[in-house]
Amino acid sequence: MAERMLQFVRLQQHQPDKREAQARREDFGEIYAPFATARAEEQASRCSQCGVPFCQVHCPLNNNIPDWLKLTAENRLEEAYEIAAATNTFPEVCGRVCPQDRLCEGNCVIEKGFESVTIGAVEKFITDTAWDRGWVKPPTPLRELDRSIGIIGAGPAGLAAAERLRTRGWQVTVYDRHDRVGGLMIYGIPNFKLEKDIVVRRWRQFEAGGIRFELNVEIGRDISFEELRGRHDAVLIATGVYRARDVEVPGNDLQGVVPALDFLIASNRKGLGDAVEAFDSGALNAEGKRVVVIGGGDTAMDCVRTSVRQGAASVTCLYRRDKANMPGSMREVKNAEEEGIRFAWLAAPKFFTGEQGQVTGVQAVRMHLGMPDATGRQQVVPLAGSEYTEPADLVIKALGFDPEDLPAMFNEPSLRVSRWGTLQVDHRSMMTSVPGVFAAGDIVRGASLVVWGIRDGRDAADRIELWYEARGSVPQAAE
């Protein structure tokens, strides 16, 4: 073991420098400065190189974190990148947007007494260095194969599968209904967490490696699902989940009550230089408005922090549980608090008030955490007589996402879905009820993290290869 390691006993944890809250409220730039090489090496050397690396165990990709921390501490950065990229298609994205406080860093064995190793920041440093020094290469295969895959969806799961199959020689075509590659990485996640050139350079690199993209193509409208299956030896559905969950309360149809994804897409498109009528008209623009965001996940944090940067008069996050029970990253909550967002804990909307069809407020009720339900999570119970009003000109509903009706969209009724609307697959083969059609990511798992999408896409690529090589036997479809 290198003498450089186990330095947690003498070196304190140090995250990358963070821009002052007032300064970062003024633009959409990333809030963290890059690590200097010496600081990254120093922070990597705090790793204890423990026998059972819980950071790796709790990473959905099972990244070899202790190995690339050790290599970074020894200034062997190209090797560190090779180790990081071996298990992760987008380490530069995960280093920025993963909730490390809930995953790798939250399970670091030194966390209790010495604070965790800054794993996410070192991962970002390694990969940014690799891009700067030209170590990141297109997914070029050693030999071309006469095998074709059509992938529906250019988000994390679809792109991870595309890259993995392309490096093995497959002819890969990715179809997406949007005009850019990246899915929610390009349109859902704000720039202050993930600047869009990070995603675009991967897109261009994948094209250089021979992956074909057919954009502005909606399956079932521009090309039939049957025709798509005829073009390719196999099909992977990786569409994600985009249908916003709603809150069924009076006043839901008032102007100014909008879904979170509509709001975020409009903001990201504007940042990309697109003409966005709904933004320019003010319908999806928080400037000068009293904003109330309903929800407690990372999407809600994206909405409140975007609203501040658009120049909102005030921003309040309304969440029916307390801070300790928020599903989102505590690091994101802290960033939001620093940027001036007000949190209304233990409060839920009862109805929306309005005048002349425009929302003017949220009638809310205070909540109490009661006994645990069947899942073990405490139930929320309204407190009688505790109603009050949150003034609002713009209400953003960030309550999560459900799957769209893919059998209807694709005109393929034989695609079986679960009671939640997600696609049913045989979890050993990742094949749907339609032979030769596989599915991965949120459309199977439900709304989740980028890192889980990457994991599912890579796993699906492996299963597709196994199926193709054993096509002489009859495959088992999902039941």
TrEMBL record:
Keywords: 4Fe-4S, Iron, Iron-sulfur, Metal-binding, Oxidoreductase
Domain FAD/NAD(P)-binding residue range list: 149-470
PANTHER family in UniProt: GLUTAMATE SYNTHASE [NADPH] SMALL CHAIN, GLUTAMATE SYNTHASE [NADPH] SMALL CHAIN-RELATED
Record's protein name: NAD(P)-dependent oxidoreductase
Species for this entry: Roseomonas elaeocarpi
Domain Dihydroprymidine dehydrogenase: 25-134
Residue ranges that the Swiss-Prot or TrEMBL entry lists as coiled coil: none
